[in-house]
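Supplementary Methods. Inverse-folding protocol.

Structures were first reduced to a discrete structure-token string of length 225. This string, shown here, constituted the complete conditioning input.
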């Protein structure tokens, strides 16, 4: 899962990024209005944490830009401005939640998880396909009822595949999902192949084969009957 933290307080942004990274999220940061607007226009995220008071502009205008593009990404307004008007305006524009500073990082983590679960997984903690089950809360995986130990990247890749079941996903989109905007700085995305190979091998060892198909010249697809 990929987060964008839009927050000009660098220490706070760093603390959020460190905590959420420990929870197996890929975190990107933006510290100004212009930087944030560029990122939300160029990249896809599973959730955006949005401060309202930013150098160069108002966070609510970023929220408007997100929703005008029909982008369904979850947005949590995180701001010291705790007035009723700010909350109402943000929710009217399309925010999913509002958390006033200061806050506890475990609470923020659960709010992020709740939004992603609601938007992507129909309010279910278990995601299943082809005899593979992902427990979204514990971030554990079973295949044919057997525990499958995955690296963080393999877990994120499996979740990405199952979330896009029966859809072709390109190598570029997988690279962006796994490494964020760093993907643009890489010479190639061949590292994706290595993770796919390892994931397929671990699933096959548990008796789940042929669910990840190579679509020649296009990408890969998680095939669900």
């Amino acid at each position: 899962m990929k987060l964008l933290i839009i927050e000009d307080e660098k220490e706070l942004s760093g603390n959020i990024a460190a905590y959420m990274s420990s929870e197996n999220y890929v975190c990107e940061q933006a510290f100004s209005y212009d930087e944030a607007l560029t990122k939300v226009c160029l990249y896809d995220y599973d959730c955006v944490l949005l401060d309202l008071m930013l150098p160069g502009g108002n966070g609510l205008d970023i929220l408007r830009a997100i929703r005008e593009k029909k982008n369904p990404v979850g947005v949590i307004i995180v701001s010291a401005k705790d007035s009723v008007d700010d909350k109402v305006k943000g929710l009217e524009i399309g925010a999913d939640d509002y958390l006033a500073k200061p806050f506890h990082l475990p609470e923020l983590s659960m709010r992020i998880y709740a939004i992603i679960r609601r938007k992507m997984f129909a309010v279910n903690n278990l995601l299943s396909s082809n005899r593979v089950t992902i427990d979204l809360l514990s971030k554990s995986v079973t295949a044919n009822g057997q525990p499958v130990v995955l690296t963080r990247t393999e877990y994120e890749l499996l979740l990405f595949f199952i979330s896009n079941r029966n859809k072709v996903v390109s190598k570029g989109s997988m690279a962006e999902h796994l490494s964020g905007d760093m993907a643009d700085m890489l010479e190639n995305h061949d590292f994706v192949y290595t993770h796919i190979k390892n994931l397929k091998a671990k699933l096959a060892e548990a008796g789940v084969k042929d669910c990840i198909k190579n679509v020649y010249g296009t990408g890969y697809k998680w095939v669900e009957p």
